[in-house]
């Protein structure tokens, strides 16, 4: 093909892609709660002029926004925004929202020492109820990423949720997960591991720790300890066992935060769960090796697409259980 025609074809494809993306209608949703206004956006599929299925997307831990981007990291990865767009391309709407204190939920921010894990459960439940009651949607599913997996398990119980996807979801209580992460780092000296285990034991018993070494301040600073205590009481394998709907448990082989064993433990905890392990996918759902520098670089690169197998597996799961 002549160069001129190749360039013209490339330009045409780029224009068509851009136009298609612009046809997705996005609608802002603001909900009033006891602690202030929380907000998110619904992304509708193209030509959504009748009832459509919808998925509530719940993000992971830390200061993470509705698109899957962390305020603690430079740049964006847009993993959850890309997931919403993938669902829209398959005729499924989605609602993703900002955490308290961020973006559309900035007014609902709390001082860190006053924040509880149950606040996150309550916020997600508010959005789920909104979707269930909204007559524009015929079936509702949940996709929880990382910490959002546990939150999704909690709010799905006893509700009219037709399908649940656990994406890179931990299987152990947060104290056990942290112990594994500390042990997995070869640079952590024995003294640091001993201190971390002592702190975790105290928090597990409901007791806060005032003296924390500088190296552990980011994880165990006094202001975050009440939140950690409230989070530790939940065990993901027990919560997923309570679900009575189709379940997808999906994880990447190069995820440096949540490993394959976590996905396997979740899957065997509920006979309704289907397990998918995606080779070469990391925690932000992108292709990467397990080399830390390369892996971490993907957390700040919005140009990288979602892993192809992940994209297809999640979309096929929700199409099968929400559209049919």
Automatic annotation (TrEMBL):
It comes from the Bacteria. Residues 82-284 form the Serine aminopeptidase S33 domain. Keywords: Signal. Residues 1-21 form the signal peptide. InterPro entries: AB_hydrolase_Est10, AB_hydrolase_fold, Hydrolase_4. GO terms for molecular function: carboxylic ester hydrolase activity. Pfam families: Hydrolase_4 (PF12146). This is Serine aminopeptidase S33 domain-containing protein. The lineage of its organism: Bacteria, Pseudomonadati, Bacteroidota, Cytophagia, Cytophagales.
